[in-house]
Structures are given as structure tokens and as C-alpha cells.
TrEMBL record:
Name listed for the protein in its UniProt record: histidine kinase
Region of interest (Disordered), ranges: 1-35
Superkingdom of the source species: Bacteria
Organism phylogeny: Bacteria, Bacillati, Actinomycetota, Actinomycetes, Streptosporangiales
Coiled coil segments of this chain: 207-234
InterPro entries (alphabetical): HATPase_C_sf, Sensor_HK_TwoCompSys, Sig_transdc_His_kin_sub3_dim/P
Length: 428
């Protein structure tokens, strides 16, 4: 049997009109009908109208009573099918209207015929479209009426409808058949409603899954932007600090006619060249998202000499101390530790000038400790503006891998940065 209550593409939404018989626990009203839904509704209107009018005409011809069909009767037969156009948005009202038209036609002694088809469609549609209470009430009233007719002493044969001929002679057999037929229609409506609920749940889950995936992509994009910002801060900020300090020192030496200007300019040239190279690599990564992190400039602890070279060029007096047996660190830990050293040295150059600085690396079987200490700022040390994100960035990187970073004054040093990163067996 066709699905009279089908609503394959309806999306839940609000409907300002209230349907007094609607089930309060049912799904929300559908929004505007889709073209497919409108076409399906129009099809049901046309089919039920054809059955109503055509069936009555066939029965009238068979009974030689065609002359009894007036234009008024035909219009009345078309009323119920037309009501089906609104069965989605006002299912209980449409069901009541179809029932009223059908029973009025039958009780009015008009020409018999299969005029119950619109009421069947409306009944199933009411169960599907949030008007289960109205559908069940109609079934109860119908069965109660038939039971009452059975209890009458001599019920007229034309009182109640016969599902096939339009006239019922009340009997237990016919009552049982009617009850079975009505229960079948209710079960059909419940089945369709359940199927719609499952489809709607699948749509909701799919929408939630797509939204979660979109959120994940947005988070990944934000994390990637943050990572690139950190890359820029790590690999370029250090070079720019060296350039700023050496340029300031060169101007100072030149103003006092002291030697060393040429060396300062050489350091500026080298640092600016490295900065340009690093910036170009980062820009290439932005243009090509498929670039891997390993192709970006990545100062790491395994290249400690390279980390210290530019700091030495900036005028820092650095003493390195390595304790424990060096571990073969995973690339992530190697990179994070290297950036802690680089950022700490950059901060010394930026904020303290050229004080004595110590870099201490302690390899332990279960952890790696990196510490950078410096003495009080030098009197003639250049100060650069900016910054403020370096320590927070270092801490975020270290904590990503379960480590701890502390930064602040620590006697006998003016400033101390210490990072401890756990190294698990599976990391080695």
C-alpha cells in the first residue's frame, strides 16, 4: 500500500498555527513543504478525488441510478480530497473534516460508493504528523458507534457504513472486520511515523557529525595558525633581536669612533640573511599546507652549537654544561627543548644585554631538564621593545608533552628559566 503519510524530506521547524488535536509529545511541525512534498500532496488529492467521484459513478451506473448524482453531490465528494492538501500542517483538523464529510455523505442516504478513501489517508497521516490522539479518538468513536448499533433492538441497515458497499448491517463479524481494518491503519501510521523518526535521528546525527568535523577542522586550523605564529616567533624573533642589538651597538661604536663597527655590521648581515630565509620558509608553508613541519626552520637541542652561534654573535658570553648520558630524544622533545634554549637566550639579549649566561642540560633516564640562567643586566646592554609572549609560548609547548616550565628570578641569578620534560620508554 502506498505511504499516505510519507514525509521524506521534511525538516523540523516552527509553525505559528496551533493544531488543537496535535500530539504534544510528537516531533516539531515541519517547515515549508519541499517541491517533492507538494507534488505528493497534490497526487493524493487527485487520487482520492478520482476514487471518490469515480467510485460513486461506477456504483450508480451499476445500480442504474446515475441520474441521482447532482453537481452538489459531486462537489461534496471533492471536499474531503481537497482537505488533504493541508494534512501535514493541520492533521487533526483535516482528519476531523474528512470524517465529517464522509459520515455526512453516508448518513445522508446519498448514492453509495467508496467514499472513505480520503478519511483513510487522513487517519494514517494524522498518526504520522503529530495528531495521534485525534486518530485514536476517531477509531474509538467509530468502533463505539458500531457497538452501539449492535445493541439497538432493530438497527436500520443504512445507519453505518460498509467498507465495501457503503451500507453495513451491524454484526459481530462485520464489527471484527472493521476493528481489524482500523487497527491495521493505525499500525501502518505508527510504522511510518517510527520510520520517519529513525530517519530524522539519522539526519540529526549526521548533521551533528558534520558540525563536529567542521569544529575539528576549525580547531586544527586555529592550532596550525598558532603553531606558525610560534614558529615565526621562535626562528625570526631571535634573529631580529640580534639585529637590533648589533645595530644599536654599531651606532654606539661609530658615534664614539671605537673599533668593532665592521664586526657588528657583519653580524647584522648574517642574522638578517638567516631571518629572511626563515621567513621565506614560513611563507612557503603558508602557501603550501602539505609542507611538513620538518621542512620548516626548526632549532633543536641536537643542534646545540647552531642554537648558540647566533647568540654568541650577538655578544653573549655563554657557558654550556651537559650532565648525564645524552638520550636519543624523539623529534618533538628535541624541538621543544631547543626552542626553550633559543627563546631564553633571545630574552637575555632582548632584555638584559650581554650578561654572563649559563645553559645547563641534564639527561635523566626518565626526563630531560633544560635550564638557562643569566646574571644581572649589563649597564650598556641594549634593550628592545616588544615580546611578552615568549614565556607563555614556551610553557604551552612544554606542557603539551607533560612537562613543567618555570621562569623568574632565582638566586644567585637575575633570571632563570627551567624546563623539565618527561621522556617515556616509548618515546625513545
Amino acid at each position: 500500500m502506498a505511504d499516505p503519510g510519507a514525509d521524506p524530506g521534511a525538516d523540523p521547524g516552527a509553525d505559528p498555527g496551533a493544531d488543537p488535536g496535535a500530539d504534544p509529545n510528537a516531533a516539531p511541525r515541519p517547515g515549508p513543504r519541499t517541491p517533492a512534498e507538494r507534488a505528493l500532496d497534490a497526487l493524493w488529492v487527485a487520487v482520492t478525488a478520482a476514487i471518490n467521484v469515480g467510485g460513486v459513478i461506477v456504483v450508480a451506473v451499476h445500480n442504474d441510478a446515475l441520474g441521482g448524482l447532482t453537481p452538489g453531490i459531486v462537489l461534496w465528494l471533492l471536499t474531503a480530497p481537497v482537505l488533504l492538501w493541508w494534512r501535514r500542517h493541520s492533521p487533526s483538523l483535516v482528519l476531523a473534516g474528512c470524517a465529517a464529510v464522509t459520515w455526512t455523505y453516508i448518513f445522508g442516504g446519498l448514492p453509495p460508493g467508496p467514499v472513505y478513501t480520503p478519511m483513510i489517508v487522513a487517519l494514517v497521516g494524522a498518526v504520522v504528523h503529530r495528531a495521534r490522539a485525534a486518530a485514536y479518538l476517531l477509531v474509538i468513536v467509530t468502533l463505539a458507534g458500531h457497538v452501539g448499533a449492535l445493541l439497538l433492538p432493530a438497527p436500520p441497515s443504512s445507519v453505518l457504513p460498509d467498507l465495501l458497499s457503503g451500507v453495513v448491517a451491524p454484526s459481530l463479524a462485520r464489527l471484527g472486520a472493521l476493528a481489524a481494518w482500523l487497527l491495521f491503519l493505525l499500525a501502518l501510521g505508527e510504522l511510518i511515523r517510527h520510520r520517519h523518526a529513525l530517519n530524522e535521528e539519522r539526519r540529526r546525527r549526521l548533521a551533528a557529525s558534520l558540525e563536529a568535523h567542521a569544529d575539528q577542522l576549525r580547531r586544527e586550523a586555529a592550532e596550525e595558525r598558532l603553531e606558525l605564529a610560534r614558529e615565526l616567533h621562535d626562528v625570526v624573533g631571535h634573529h631580529l633581536s640580534v639585529i637590533n642589538i648589533q645595530a644599536s651597538a654599531g651606532l654606539h661604536l661609530h658615534a664614539n669612533q671605537r673599533p668593532g663597527v665592521e664586526e657588528a655590521l657583519r653580524v647584522v648581515q648574517e642574522a638578517s640573511g638567516r631571518a629572511l630565509t626563515d621567513v621565506q620558509a614560513l611563507l612557503d608553508a603558508l602557501r603550501d599546507p602539505t609542507r611538513t613541519a620538518s621542512r620548516l626552520p626548526s632549532p633543536s637541542l641536537s643542534d646545540l652549537d647552531g642554537l648558540l652561534a647566533s647568540a654568541h654573535g650577538g655578544g653573549l658570553d655563554i657557558e654550556v654544561e651537559v650532565t648525564g648520558e645524552p638520550l636519543r630524544l624523539p623529534a618533538t622533545h628535541d624541538l621543544v627543548a631547543g626552542r626553550v634554549v633559543l627563546e631564553s637566550l633571545t630574552n637575555v639579549l632582548r632584555h638584559a644585554g650581554h650578561p654572563k649566561t649559563w645553559v645547563r642540560i641534564d639527561y635523566h633516564p626518565k626526563r630531560l631538564s633544560v635550564r638557562v640562567d643569566n646574571l644581572a643586566p649589563t649597564i650598556d646592554g641594549a634593550r628592545t621593545s616588544g615580546g611578552g609572549r615568549g614565556i607563555a609560548g614556551m610553557r604551552a609547548r612544554v606542557e603539551t608533552y607533560g612537562g613543567i616550565l618555570t621562569a623568574g628570578p632565582a638566586e644567585p641569578f637575575a633570571w632563570s628559566v627551567q624546563a623539565t620534560i618527561p621522556v617515556l620508554k616509548e618515546h625513545r
